[in-house]
Amino acid sequence: MCIRVHYAPIGTAPPFDATTQTITLPPGLDREHTVTAARAVLVELAVPQAKFGALCFCGEPLDLAPLIPQQRTGEQAVTHGA
Ligand SMILES: [Zn+2]
Questions:
Q1: What is the pTM of this model?
Q2: What spacing in Å lies between the alpha carbon of 26 and ligand 1's midpoint?
Q3: What is the CB-side half-sphere exposure of residue 47 using CA atoms within 13 A?
Q4: How far does the centroid of ligand 1 lie from the alpha carbon of residue 2, in Å?
């Protein structure tokens, strides 16, 4: 199972949950800092990292997709279903 990324405020979840293979990162960071934070956790987990990006232990780039591009949301309301 690949490592997944979850966004939650610091202190509300462990940085890494081994059960769900989920890294928790603080929301609201820009992409660069999000990658940096992800890499920091991955290094702690002894997952080899390339020069750029954040890699799963299988070598695939992590999906940091929950990031919402700040300029593209525009007037469109965020309508996440509960
Ligand atoms: Zn993987």
A1: 0.75
A2: 21
A3: 21
A4: 4
Domains of the chain by residue range: 1-67
Distances (CA, A) of 53 to 12, 26, 68, 70: 25, 17, 17, 19
Choose among 48, 50, 47: nearest CA to 15: 47
CA of 66 to the centre of ligand 1 (A): 17
Rounded CA gap, 35 and 52, in Å? 9
pLDDT digits (tens, 9 = 90+) for 3-52: 999 999 989 999 999 999 999 999 889 989 999 999 999 999 999 999 99
Let me know: does 5 contact 22? Beta carbons within 8 Å: yes
